[in-house]
Structures are given as C-alpha cells and as structure tokens.
Amino acid sequence: MRRRVQSWWRVWLAQDVLALLMAAGLLVTGLFFIYSASWRGEETGIVGAWFPRQIWWAGIGTAAALALTAVDYRFWIRQAWWLYLAAAALLVAVLFAGTRVYGAARWLNIFGVLVQPSEFAKLALVIVLARVLGGGAIQPRSLALIVAALVIAAVPFALIAAEPDLGTAAVLAPTVAAMLVAAGAPFRWLAALGLLGAGGIAAALSPLGRFLLDDYQRERILTFLDPSRDPLGSGWNAIQSAIAVGSGGLTGKGFLNGTQNVLGFLPRTVAPSDFIFPVIAEEKGFVGASLLLLAFAVLITCYIRTAWTAKDPAGSLLATGIAGLFFSHVFINIGMTIGLLPITGLPLPLVSSGGSFMVSTLAGFGLVQSVHVRRFRREVSNV
Fold this sequence. Notes:
- By secondary structure, the protein is mainly alpha-helical.
- It has 17 helices and three strands.
- It has one domain.
C-alpha cells in the first residue's frame, strides 16, 4: 500500500509544471472572455448560457485530464484499435441519427446532452497512429509507413467530411503529417503528398470545385477571397472580426467594453466559440493578443519537449500527434479571424466555448502529461 501511494505521489510530482500553468492560464482566460462574449450589457445585467455551461464542461475536462494523467498512456496504446473502431462507429451513427445544428449533423443526443464524436475521433486517430507507427511492425523510413497512416486516417476523414465538417477534417492532415515526420517517413514522399494536397486545393478553387465542394463551402472560399462581395451576409463575420481585432489598438478597450462584441456586431452565436479571439483582441488589444499567442506557443513547446524526451516511440508519437492537433486548431482559428484563412467552424483550444471540444482538448493534455511523468521509466511495454 505504501509503495502504491509513493508511486502516485511520484506521478503527480513529476508533471510538467510549466504546461500546467499555461493550460490553467488559458482555461481561466477563456472563461473570462466567454463571460464577456455572453454579456448582454449593463442595462440588463444578463449573462448568456454560454458561460455557466462552459464552467461545467471545463470541470468535466479537468477531471478527464487528471484521470488520464494517472493512467499509464501505454494502456491506451494497447487499446488503440478498439478506440479507433468505437470512434468510427460513433461517426457512422452521426450520419444516420445525428442532431442537426445550423444545417450540419455533427452531434449525437445522448440523454439530452449533445456530444460531437468527431472531437474524440481525432484523439482516437492519434492513439492508433502512435501504435502503428511506433510499434515497430512497419519498417521505418519506408513508403509503407505513409500508406498505412493514410489508410487509417482516411476513414475518420471521410466520415467527418460527410457530416459535413470540412474544418475538423482539415486538421487531421497536418496532424498525420507531423506524426509521419516524427516516425521518420521519407521526406520525398511527404513532399509529393503535399503537392498532391495543393493540387486538390487548386482543383477545389477551379470550376471543377462545384463537383468537389458543397455550396456553403464554395461560398466560404469566395467570401475569404473577397468579403465585400456580400458584406451583410456571408462576409459579415469576417468583416466584423477584422474590425474587432483592428480596433483594439495597443492595450484594448477594456474588459466588457468591446463595442463589436457588446453591441452584437459579432453575432452572439459565434463570439464565445469560433470568434473568441476577436473579443480578446478588441478588449485587451495587441498586448493581450500577443500574450495569448505566447501562452499557446509555450504550451505547444512543452508538448514537443515531452515528445522529444519520451522513452518509447509510441509515447513520443502520441505527444507529437496531440501537439499537431493543438497547433492546427490555434493556427486555423486565429488565421480565419484575422482574414488569412477561410471561415471554418474551428474553436480555439482551451479558450473557446464548446463541450466536446473542451473535454477532448483537456483529455489530450492529460495524455501528454501521462507521457511526461513516465519519461524516466526504462521499461517499454509491447504494443
């Protein structure tokens, strides 16, 4: 009993403290600005439902992170295929019995709670790729490494894109690429794969795009290229987001004083979630936005450091994949809010509101911490 207690203490004392501080800071920052994005103004004193719901989901996510930190990550590596199959089954269930919100069937109603399986499917994909690419069954630096990863990733990618949720599906590509690089895949094949992806994007933007993309997806690309073509319709969010970011100046307008947010120019349906970054930039300015980006950079660096110091290939690849997911979300979300990328429904990790996304992000954090606290153990289990 004493040995077990000592082992638990070693786990908690060996955590990545810097990563903990960054994650906690981002989580608290998100709660503050979700409150701001939900604020209805001093004349009413009403706060929308986003804020109390997010406290609930943050609590569930924190519990998940603590539980996953305590459990040896190699347990999940051994269960990788079962997790992958369960995730695929849930994605199929979404296509046939999903709840539609804003025209897309991305959620399952489980006992009155809307759950988005695609968020957990991303983690399942990272875990199964960590097992396949890090288990030694495939010869390193071979074409078979890339083929295996693409075949495994194709199933969740196709199912998520069919919901339709092309934004979530898109984050899988850089995540898989990062894991392939870490696994030692030949650069020439990765470069060829990148050129193929660029060709696909070019085809989507060409007249052939009408056969490859849904109407709303083509509209998003056209709006990205020229938001002024429909300033009161499809271009509204992009224009108002750019105004919010630019009007913050150096130090911002102050908490709860952002006019784009409080006056509703940033729609309340998206301000607490996909467009939380403009709310922060308007109220805290360039300084606040820069500090937020710095916190993200430090946390991602902690993930990469954990991947670098992991004692087995599977743990290293697991941390690499979660770092890739995290970075992709940050890059795409902020890129779309400042006009560098088309508008997609991707939230900002640990900051945006969202139940399934918050829980899956904190679960990923817990998995990386599990790799980190066990980095000095020399035994490597067979996966």
